[in-house]
């Protein structure tokens, strides 16, 4: 059995996409997955599964949410090993003590190289980013993500893929939960 994390995009940030974590745990458990846990209220589900295909896992959770809750929610799945590799690959973690200034945008797929090459930080913001496969490592040295125009929606528009972003504290906690 492999430990995975399902990262739901855009839930519990507005009135139309509310999902109770108890309902989310039940849905994932009902799909046949084991040791289902949620982290925070923002759509992070850690679970064990014998299904190795992350895309199949994503589609199953998306379909269950649509069928049972009537919501269309993108779900991105990473294995515990993939999450550990994301943490290990951070180009900014050793330069920043404040985990609120580090984030990772998880992408449904690696964006086209031409889109990555054209990606720019809007305005005069001081933001560093590194696109590495299906993740974008983000560093906001002067401020927080909440005041930036370099947002999840901006990344989706510029890169042409679905994304969901987590702060560094959450990324490390999810790595730890998938390792246990």
- Kindly report how far apart the N and C termini lie: 12 Å
The main β sheet shows up as:
4 strands, antiparallel
User: What is the CATH architecture descriptor of the largest domain?
Assistant: 2-Layer Sandwich
List the secondary-structure elements in sequence, H or E: EHEEHEHEHEEHEH
Q: Rough shape?
A: globular
Radius of gyration, taken over Cα atoms and rounded to an integer in Å: 16 Å
- Mean pLDDT over all positions: 93
Strand content: 25-35%
Q: How many helices?
A: 6
pLDDT below 50 for ≥5 consecutive residues: which ranges? none
Please count the beta strands (DSSP E, at least 2 residues each): 8
Could you give the order of strands across the largest sheet?
Answer: 2-3-1-4
Fraction of residues in helix: 25-40%
Classification by helices and strands: alpha+beta
The number of domains is 2
Which CATH class of the largest domain is shown?
Answer: Alpha Beta
